[in-house]
Structures are given as C-alpha cells and as structure tokens.
C-alpha cells in the first residue's frame, strides 16, 4: 500500500516550527529512511502520518485514501518507537496480541497470530515471559512483532535502534530490514544514524528546518547530494569554495584543478565536494590534480587509515581514507570533484 504526502505543512501551535510543504511518496513495500539534524521535523512527519498530531494542510494519502481527518486508531498503522513502550504488566505474547484484541479478533486466532510473529522475530520461546525479562534488543523485536500483528497498512519506525548498543544494533538492523521486506511493509524509518539510513533504506529523505531537501537512493544521495546541506550531513567529506576558471577548470584559490564544470559560465561560484575514499595518496609526479602537502592527524581504522592532508592555502585539511596515508602528495580525479551550486 503506497503512502503519499502531498504538500504537507504543519506548525506547532504558537510556533513557526514543524513541517513546510513536504511532498514525498513511499511505494508499496518500500522503506524510506528520514534523516536530518536534530529539530529538522523527522518525528513531526511521523506523528502526522500516524495521526498523533493533527491540523496539517496538504494531504496524507494511504492506499488511495486521504487520512488527513482519520483518527489514529482507524489509520491501521504499525508503530515502533525508540522507547520500547511495551506494556509491562502483559506477557510478551499478550503484548504482540494487543492490537488484535482491540480489533476484536477472537482469542485463539490472536494467540496463534502472535505466536507466529514471535517465531518470525526469533522470540518464539519467549511468549510467556514478562517483558521486563527481555534485553533491549529483544524488546524492540517484540515491538516490531506487535506492530506487524495487525497487518498494518504502513509501518512507522521512530529511532527503533538508537537505545541499543552497537553490536545489537547492527544485527537487528539486518533483521528488521529482512522482516520488513518479507511483509512487503510500506515503511518510514526515522533515524539520526546516517549509516543506518544508507544501509537499510530503499530511499533516503533528508529534512532540514522542516523542509525536504532531497529524496533519493542511498547511492544517489551520497554520490550526488543536491546541496551543500545534504553533502555535509550524509557521509564524510571535504567541502571547499571554488570558481569556474574556464570550461573544465576550477580556481580553488590555492590551485587550479580539472573538474567537470558542465555549462557553468566563467566566474561561477560553487562548492567542491570530495569524499575521503576518492583521495589518492602519493600519485605519480605528473598526475592530474596533484596537490603537494603533508599529512596531519591520523586515525587508524584497521583496514584503512583516515587522515587529514594539509595543502598550503586550502584553509582546511582534506579528509582522506586509504590503506596507508599519503607521504607528500594527493590527487583527486576530475570526476571525483563534485560541484555543488547551493
Ligand atoms: N510539541 C511541540 N510544540 C512546539 N514545538 C515542537 C513540539 N515538538 C517539536 N517541536 C519543534 O518542531 C521542530 C521539529 O521537531 P521534531 O521533533 O520533529 O524534530 P526531529 O527532527 O525529530 O528532532 P530529533 O532528531 O531531535 O528528535 C523542532 O524545532 C522542535 O523544537
């Protein structure tokens, strides 16, 4: 079932904060990750889709039905939040069966369905436990089973992994993704963890100040960010100002570099984005876009070393990653200098 937001705007009462003219579509079975800095409107977007906040303008359409005036419980949406929010006085099984009870599904059927879902999330043997006896990761899996038990029209995940430690998070990330795909659940996932977004999502939507800056596949948003704000938020990079000096040539102030300048006229001011993995250490002396300098701070990451490389006059170091840091020069292939117009 597809989910469409069409020019959705919302202000919290007495405030200018909220969402501003956000349009996006989530296709049936698609997982769209919503990212953005703190206060950018991620949770607000989810609450509007869920119906927990009301009074927006524009349309929220689920499977062809405009939900804008539909109360929370009639939207038939599954939700998983950061805080596990399980009912502590109910067993694991009864937690999962809860939504079915509200929908008046008979006892035998809802117990069977809840047990099936617990099996799917790998907690089949925990049905009779109290929720307090579960780890954080297990509680989040119960929350996911509970959200899916009602056969929801859409699934909303609000930072479902952020309270968990890194080792559990990585594993659960894969598990949630595979269950989401198995159920073909149309899903919005809010996360502040951009790696989580890139790994899990079919597409990533970036919000800032209540506005949608870009929605694109993980690869597209990483390799072709629509603006400086997106480039700075998604992945590591070095971003420097430059001017078009001639077709295919950039004046960086400290050097002239070859780059794909497109149809931009002479003198156009741009910013140049370079990803760490695109910086080649110690190129041949006659290499294109060779920059001499010296290595600064280094962080050993196992297979790779991440390091700063200082080029005189650049104003800030280039952030690079390679098996070994550069000794005296780096080079950046012209196609890896990404020009940002705003
Ligand atoms: N109940 C509220 N009343 C007034 N303003 C609010 C309310 N809830 C959130 N806001 C404001 O709306 C904006 C968007 O908040 P929201 O919680 O959606 O951001 P977020 O991207 O989810 O942030 P975070 O990553 O910190 O959770 C922020 O400026 C926030 O201060």
Automatic annotation (TrEMBL):
It comes from the Bacteria. PROSITE patterns: ABC_TRANSPORTER_1, ABC_TRANSPORTER_2. Residues 3-234 form the ABC transporter domain. Pfam families: ABC_tran, TOBE_2. The keyword Nucleotide-binding applies. One of its GO terms (biological process) is quaternary ammonium group transport. Keywords: ATP-binding, Cell membrane, Membrane, Nucleotide-binding, Transport. The keyword ATP-binding applies. GO terms for molecular function: ATP binding; ATP hydrolysis activity; transmembrane transporter activity. GO terms for cellular component: ATP-binding cassette (ABC) transporter complex. This is ABC transporter ATP-binding protein. It comes from Acidovorax cavernicola.
């Amino acid at each position: 079932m597809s989910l469409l937001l069409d020019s959705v705007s919302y202000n919290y009462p007495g405030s200018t904060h909220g969402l501003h003219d956000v349009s996006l579509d989530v296709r049936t079975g698609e997982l769209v990750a919503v990212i953005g800095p703190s206060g950018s409107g991620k949770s607000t977007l989810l609450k509007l889709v869920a119906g927990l906040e009301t009074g927006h303008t524009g349309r929220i359409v689920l499977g062809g039905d405009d939900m804008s005036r539909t109360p929370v419980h009639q939207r038939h949406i599954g939700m998983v939040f950061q805080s596990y929010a399980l009912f502590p006085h109910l067993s694991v099984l009864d937690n999962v069966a809860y939504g079915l009870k509200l929908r008046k599904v008979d006892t035998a059927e809802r117990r069977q369905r809840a047990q099936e879902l617990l099996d799917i999330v790998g907690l089949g043997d925990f049905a009779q436990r109290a929720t307090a006896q579960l780890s954080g990761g297990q509680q989040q899996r119960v929350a996911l089973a509970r959200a899916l038990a009602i056969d929801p029209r859409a699934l909303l995940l609000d930072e479902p992994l952020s309270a968990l430690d890194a080792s559990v998070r990585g594993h659960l990330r894969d598990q949630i993704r595979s269950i989401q795909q198995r159920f073909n659940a149309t899903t919005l996932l809010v996360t502040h963890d951009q790696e989580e977004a890139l790994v899990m999502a079919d597409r990533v939507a970036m919000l800032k100040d209540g506005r949608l800056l870009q929605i694109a596949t993980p690869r597209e948003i990483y390799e072709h960010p629509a603006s400086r704000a997106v480039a700075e938020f998604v992945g590591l990079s070095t971003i420097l100002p430059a001017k078009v000096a001639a077709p295919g040539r950039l004046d960086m102030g400290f050097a002239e570099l070859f780059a794909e300048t497109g149809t931009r006229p002479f003198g156009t001011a741009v910013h140049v984005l370079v990803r760490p993995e695109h910086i080649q250490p110690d190129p041949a002396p006659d290499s294109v876009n060779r920059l001499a300098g010296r290595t600064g701070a280094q962080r050993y990451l196992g297979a790779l070393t991440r390091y700063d490389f200082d080029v005189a006059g650049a104003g800030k170091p280039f952030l690079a990653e390679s098996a070994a840091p550069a000794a005296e020069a780096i080079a950046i292939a012209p196609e890896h200098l990404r020009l940002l117009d705003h």
